[in-house]
Amino acid sequence: MVSGSGLCAKVVVVDARHHMLGRLASILAKELLNGQRVVVVRCEEIALSGGLVRQKMKYLRFLRKRMNTKPSKGPIHFRAPSRILWRTIRGMIPHKTKRGAAALERLKAFEGIPQPYDKMKRMVIPDALKVLRLQPGHKFCLLGRLSSEVGWHHYDIVKELEEKRKVKSKVFYEKKKQLIALRKVAAKKADEQLASEGMRTKWGLHPHEERGQRLVCECILKRLSIFWYR
């Protein structure tokens, strides 16, 4: 466990869809400095407050900031949404120190949801969600659309791949629901059989079932944090 954050030492996969860029970056920066490893997916769906035209004008002003004698020395203007998020988080971390450099090494960001993260549990951050932080009716734009306007050429490809992934995910989920239903039926039959044999503890549970319930409660208590599961 990471001290003070309530998060586990394993990799946390964050679904960045409709999260506010600055709020998401600030929370992730703190968790990275605390030692948490984070993978951010669907960076092209990150939201920015303000309309697309306004954000595009701001980014074009940023593109004009460069070194006169040798522009390749910096500043580097990233176009991909994942790199824009990475640069935003870098600005909130003392990245020139060993501690900050190690924190940035714990961060991975992707457009879409590549393998193997499409099979892993994804989380959201309530304190950064657009629906909870932005006023209803307020203008906003998506980072992927902005990036495509300023030089990122893979917006359509990522969109197409995401559609294919969602189709596969839907098929997988339907099979999963069927398996869960069959498992419930099997568990009910097993409970009836065990009840007829009298194999119950003082709590009315089978010994193995009681141990499983206790482990589930312990896991829930450990997972109470700033993250919500999708």
From TrEMBL:
Coiled-coil portions: none
GO-annotated cellular components: ribonucleoprotein complex; ribosome
InterPro entries to which the protein is assigned, alphabetical: Ribosomal_uL13 (IPR005822), Ribosomal_uL13_CS (IPR023563), Ribosomal_uL13_euk/arc (IPR005755), Ribosomal_uL13_sf (IPR036899)
Alphabetized Gene3D superfamilies for the sequence: 6.10.250.3250, Ribosomal protein L13
CDD domains for this protein: Ribosomal_L13 (cd00392)
Keyword line: Ribonucleoprotein, Ribosomal protein
One Pfam short name: Ribosomal_L13
Keyword Ribosomal protein included in the entry's annotation: yes
PANTHER family tied to this protein: LARGE RIBOSOMAL SUBUNIT PROTEIN UL13 (PTHR11545:SF3), RIBOSOMAL PROTEIN L13 (PTHR11545)
Family: Belongs to the universal ribosomal protein uL13 family.
Protein name: 60S ribosomal protein L13a
Organism: Riccia fluitans
